[in-house]
């Protein structure tokens, strides 16, 4: 086992490596993938939570529609807030970059099917 003299007793060498900021490519890729994924989730949630009848006054006729619309507004608001809260470490950007490549086609397919 290798011991590094510059580390505190509770730190490891791996923890010291994760403090490095992400590269520009990883940062842009992570932000782009995360943003597009959250936007698609907002679109899906807004479509699913919208009233079944096109009149907006129909949400007062059935309590289920009112509850669904209110929950949809809350979830969409939560997604919008999370758009502006960026991850704190380089690993999160890397994960979002790779997961964006995997999840974006699936999310767009789900949005197409829901629409």
TrEMBL record:
Domain of life, source organism: Bacteria
Keywords: Membrane, Transmembrane, Transmembrane helix
Chain ranges passing through the membrane: 26-46, 66-87, 93-114
Protein's recorded name: Uncharacterized protein
Protein species of origin: Bradyrhizobium erythrophlei
């Amino acid at each position: 086992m290798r011991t590094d003299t510059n580390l505190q007793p509770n730190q490891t060498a791996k923890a010291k490596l994760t403090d490095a900021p992400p590269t520009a490519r990883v940062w842009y890729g992570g932000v782009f993938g995360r943003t597009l994924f959250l936007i698609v989730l907002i679109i899906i949630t807004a479509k699913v939570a919208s009233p079944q009848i096109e009149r907006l006054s129909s949400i007062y006729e059935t309590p289920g529609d009112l509850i669904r619309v209110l929950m949809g507004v809350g979830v969409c608001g939560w997604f919008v807030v999370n758009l502006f809260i960026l991850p704190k470490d380089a690993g999160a950007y890397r994960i979002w970059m790779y997961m964006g490549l995997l999840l974006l086609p699936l999310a767009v397919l789900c949005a197409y099917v829901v629409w």
